[in-house]
Write a structure and sequence with these properties.
96 residues; alpha+beta; 3 helices; 6 strands; 40% strand
Length: 96
């Protein structure tokens, strides 16, 4: 089991995640590949002091990248989408 601070790797801040945050109140995080939904929920509640309503997780396959004749692959990673019951998370640098 990964430790509390290693469960949440980083927030995923893209155009789509910003729209999901504004429209639905969903936050997207890159999480440890071995973390389950309960560990993710506990980590977010302890780190940010909020109440988590629902957690969706998915494994994202790494994209194939090519430089000249060499072909490589980016690493696979795990993504979690979190909806809150109450409170907000200020990972985006502004209050919505």
């Amino acid at each position: 089991m990964p430790t509390l601070h290693r469960v949440i790797v980083r927030p995923v801040i893209t155009e789509q995640t910003s729209l999901a945050y504004q429209d639905k109140g969903e936050y997207v995080f890159e999480v440890h590949p071995d973390a389950n939904k309960q560990e993710i929920k506990q980590a977010i509640e302890r780190l940010f002091g909020v109440k988590v309503g629902q957690v969706w997780t998915m494994n994202v396959r790494g994209k194939t990248r090519r430089v000249g004749t060499s072909v490589g692959r980016r690493p696979h990673w795990k993504k979690a989408i979190v909806t809150l019951k109450e409170g907000t998370i200020d990972t985006f640098g502004f209050e919505g």
